[in-house]
Amino acid sequence: MRQIIIHVDMDAFYASVEMRDNPELRGKPLIIGALPQERGVVATCSYEARRWGVHSAMNTREAFHLCPMGVFMHPNFDKYRAVSNQLHAIWNTYASAAETIALDEAYLDVTEQAGSWEGARGIARTIKRRTREELGLSCSVGLAYSKTAAKTASEEKKPDGYFEIPTPEDFVNLIIDRDVRVLYTVGEKTAERLRRAGIVTVRGIRERPEEVIRLLGRQGEWITRIARGEDDRRVQPWRPEDAKSVSRELTFQADVDDLDFLRDVLLLLSMSVERRAARAGLYGEGVSLKVTYADMRSVTRSRLVPSTRAAACIWREAVSLLEQVPRRPVRLIGTGLYHLAGEHGRQLRFEDLLPETAARQDAEINGQLAAMGARYGLDFLGNLDRIFQGETLYRTVEYMRKHRLAQTPR
Prior knowledge:
Elements: E1 5-10, H1 13-21, E2 30-33, E3 42-45, H2 47-50, H3 60-66, E4 71-73, H4 77-92, E5 97-102, E6 105-109, H5 111-114, H6 117-135, E7 139-144, H7 147-156, E8 162-165, H8 168-175, H9 188-196, H10 202-207, H11 209-216, H12 218-227, E9 245-256, H13 259-280, E10 282-293, E11 298-308, H14 311-322, E12 330-342, H15 355-376, H16 384-387, H17 392-407
Helix pairs in contact: 4-6, 11-12, 13-14
């Protein structure tokens, strides 16, 4: 029996959650991300805002220029993660395998549960109904024979859409005269290379497959296959250890050239990374540092370490890496763990088994937090859980930056 796959994609997820929770926002151009006076980008926006040309990843100041009447809000990721868990609990009920793509998106293999195309159609409609009735949110659902077709189908009738693509022939007939970007693996740079070669539509890919492969190599081979409707990939359940890294970064509202302040920020970011890794049950064998300078140029540095997720270790390594990069005004800083493994896949050192190791690391962190509290007039130790909720970490760091600036002799 051919695979039957459902792709579920929430409609303007962050914005929809906020409008659900605050009815006064409904019908307004809601823009989630940085505020207009801040550095940053749009995370998502309501469909009302999209009518003004606003879109995800757009600079927020540009979004404000296009839509000055928009309602701008910081995202609340803790809230969105909680809702996401509820969504996936509903969706996964109907799948033998569920592949989580993002907080608001998943592939579901319903072949066995459905037993037939009509049965799968019933599951798709039930998912839409339960998502709306139980969580007050709308989703778009695609039902198809493959992952590529299911993804395309879910985009076809957004928002709150439903579309079916039963066969490869149906898929090809739907997209053949559309721009090459309709193939979801074709990004703007790839599309531009194809356009320069005179290949603008999917029909062009089908008519000139050898040229596409010569131009794009292995990626070209894949593109020519999906242009013919061929995709036999299975739904792969996501595991935490499949993640490439666990990281946290922050953009400052004004450039920073104070090394001591950057060390303090890295301590908080390292603690955030530790918490994220612990939630996923992961350890890393590498620590990374990312720095973006005032001129938007970025540098990344990394170092292999014994398996860890301890904030003290992440912080020490990140600070060491920071001291090796050029000293220039910094716009963004971040740190993270990579080479991830779960509890059973990590290689333990002898000292990991000693209880005094964890106690020593905790004491190091607590000592640093106490010293930071004295520098900034904040009770870090008494407010850790609150600091790492939602956007509080961002606001805390901004307070620290302004406090440090005020204390610096002019």
